[in-house]
Design a protein that fits this description.
Layout: E1 19-26, E2 31-36, E3 41-45, H1 48-68, H2 70-73, H3 83-90, H4 95-99, E4 102-108
Parallel strand pairs: 1-4
Antiparallel strand pairs: 1-2, 2-3
Helix pairs in contact: 1-3
Length: about 110
């Protein structure tokens, strides 16, 4: 008789979204912009994928810079409120962990 070891049921852990990325198409310019309101960041690219990727790269770079200059940024009037977000970003060990912090919303730019 063969004994079968049953696997545990997999669980999916979902983190609470912390950062919003508003990804919008600017029909007049035929460009896409990504805005992260929590970090006051914006980027513009030719495709939605490029804009989103550029924003994620910018978020990572900003978090690294913020942590390197923590004393300065954490006391800055226009950047001190970013600290809780920066700590969450800095705690991510992989890009996938960072992506779990993001909520991506889509729209169209109207002027």
């Amino acid at each position: 008789m063969i004994e079968i070891e049953y696997l545990k049921e997999p669980k999916i852990m979902i983190s609470e979204k912390r950062l919003t990325i508003l990804l919008a198409r600017d029909e007049a310019e035929d460009k896409y912009c990504a805005l992260c309101p929590e970090l006051d960041m914006v980027t513009e690219m030719d495709t939605a994928d490029e804009a989103l990727e550029d924003m994620v790269d910018a978020i990572k770079e900003y978090a690294e810079e913020y942590m390197a200059e923590l004393e300065l940024y954490s006391k800055s009037l226009n950047r001190a409120h970013h600290l809780p977000y920066i700590k969450d970003i800095a705690s991510c060990k992989t890009d996938w962990e960072l992506w779990t912090l993001l909520e991506i919303r889509h729209g169209i730019v109207y002027i």
